[in-house]
């Protein structure tokens, strides 16, 4: 396993140019002209009619096999697998995919009901199913299964808007907070299949909210905390959310943004919402 150098795509004089990028140098090797022609080393190769020449200037990282870097010994010594183990696992996954992935599913997940079929697929028909007939709970696998041996271990590290504001949350603490919120939702008659809108800043309670929904089988719809009341309204109506979890405000770069106020405005056009849970942030 080795690192590789990178290709970069840049907008140069109206053309999209790909070059080999390493620290301190950048050599162009391919160019898409504004007219839609693809050039390799200055020679026209083929037309790309679908290319949009107005594409914004940006860098897109791709992997190139032209140069490799050895992995530092300290990295290799601390890896979960060495190269031989990885190659053996990969070979098995290709030769016996059902057996390999069944073992992985048994090792890393806790199932309420074991699957009937590991995989059933047909790429030509676009038909792909994994672990059909199996049943598990995502919250249980993220939290509960770790409590016995890792309850006091940090599960989440949160960094606030202020660099001095942070938190280390253990699996035990995470479990307690998730269960409390799940019970609040159940007390408001939120049950399996119900949709819950989550409109929150990047705080631990946002994780609690998603896991609480998963715990009771509710479907959570996460709405980006920077969206307007109109956008919140559209997403609540589209998925027929009847509950909302939000925060009184979000803080970004010392700027206070009233999330609950945005929700209140959105709910003026969402008559089916019966519950709003608000975190004081």
Describe the structure.
This protein has about 280 residues and is of the alpha+beta class. The chain has helices at about 75, 85-95, 95-110, 140, 145-150, 170-185, 205-215, 230-240, 260-265, and strands at about 5-10, 15-20, 25-30, 35-40, 45, 60-70, 115-120, 125-130, 155-160, 165-170, 195-200, 220, 245, 250, 255, 275-280. The strands form five sheets. The protein has a six-stranded antiparallel β-sheet, with no helix packed on it. The chain has a four-stranded parallel β-sheet with strand order 12-11-13-16, sandwiched between helices. α2 packs across α3 (about 95-110). It is globular, with a radius of gyration of 25 Å. The two termini are about 45 Å apart. The model is unreliable at about 1-5, about 20-25 and about 40-65 (pLDDT under 50).
**Secondary structure tally, helices:** 9
Oligomer: single chain
Gap between N and C termini, in Å?
44 Å
Class by alpha and beta content: alpha+beta
Please give the number of β-strands.
16
Give a brief outline of the structure.
This protein has 281 residues and is of the alpha+beta class.
Which features would summarize this protein structure in a list?
disordered N terminus; four-stranded parallel β-sheet; alpha+beta; 16 strands; 31% helix; six-stranded antiparallel β-sheet; 32% strand; 281 residues
Summarize the helices and strands and which ones pair or pack.
Elements: E1 3-12, E2 15-22, E3 25-32, E4 37-40, E5 43-47, E6 62-69, H1 73-77, H2 83-95, H3 97-108, E7 117-122, E8 127-132, H4 138-142, H5 147-150, E9 154-159, E10 166-170, H6 171-187, E11 195-199, H7 204-216, E12 219-222, H8 229-239, E13 243-247, E14 250-252, E15 255-257, H9 259-266, E16 275-279
Parallel strand pairs: 11-12, 11-13, 13-16
Antiparallel strand pairs: 1-2, 1-6, 2-3, 3-4, 4-5, 7-8, 9-10, 14-15
Helix pairs in contact: 2-3, 6-7, 8-9
